[in-house]
Amino acid sequence: MSRRTVTVRRFIAAPPEVVFDLIADNSAWGRWAIGLESEREAEGHDHPDGVGAIRKVGRAPVASREEITAFDPPRSLSYKLLTGLPLQDYEASVMVEQVTDGSLLTWAGSFVPVNGVQSAGGATALRAALGSFCVSIARYVSRDDGDDDLSVHEGTVD
Q1: Closest Cα partner for 56 from 76, 77, 34, 83?
Q2: Structurally, what CATH architecture does the domain formed by 4-157 represent?
Q3: Residues sharing a CB contact under 8 Å with residue 122, sequence separation 6 or more, in sequence order
Q4: Do residues 109 and 3 lie in contact, with contact meaning Cβ atoms separated by under 8 Å?
Q5: CB-based contacts of 68: which residues, under 8 Å, 6+ apart?
Q6: Which Pfam families does this chain map to (predicted)?
Q7: pTM of the full structure
Q8: What is the DSSP letter of 47?
């Protein structure tokens, strides 16, 4: 079965450095993602949250371990799932671009489904999680109301 990709985009009324730092600094996740815990298990090679860093995200029974695979502040980072979620070969990238009056946050995750049911269910769950992260960051930095009006754009590619 082919790789399934979900991409979520959201305008955030804050500079890219602010948005990127909230995502890259795993200790900040508990501030903007209410009820979500995150901690660094291992530091990265050139930066504590950079390439090679391993972070734990979530709360049992839905918790994961992720390794940072690319780190280019304040523009982008990528990570891969090590353990914890039922998604085979899950990888994601986060890009923050400067736009007028703020940032465009693009969060894309992909996985290889093991069957058709996982393909649909995994994509739905991933879309909900990534969308929730984007809305939570927007609310945290700009008092955004989180409405799904003109600022959330999603796409799923098989």
Answers
A1: 83
A2: 2-Layer Sandwich (3.30)
A3: 4, 86, 87, 111, 113
A4: no
A5: 44, 49, 50, 51, 52, 53, 54, 55, 77, 78, 79
A6: Polyketide_cyc2
A7: 0.86
A8: S
- From residue 40, alpha-carbon distances to 4, 26, 50, 120 in Å are 28, 7, 11, 31
And the tokens for 44? 């990265």
pLDDT averaged per 10 residues in sequence order, the chain, 158 residues:
89 95 90 86 94 90 91 97 90 96 95 80 89 91 56 42
Residue 122 token pair? 């995994």
Please give the structure tokens belonging to residue 81. Answer: 């799932």
Whether 124 and 6 have beta carbons less than 8 Å apart is answered as no
- Letter for the amino acid at 115? N
Please state, in angstroms and rounded to a whole number, the distance separating the CA atoms of residues 145 and 127: 19
Residues 103 and 19 sit within 8 Å (Cβ to Cβ): yes
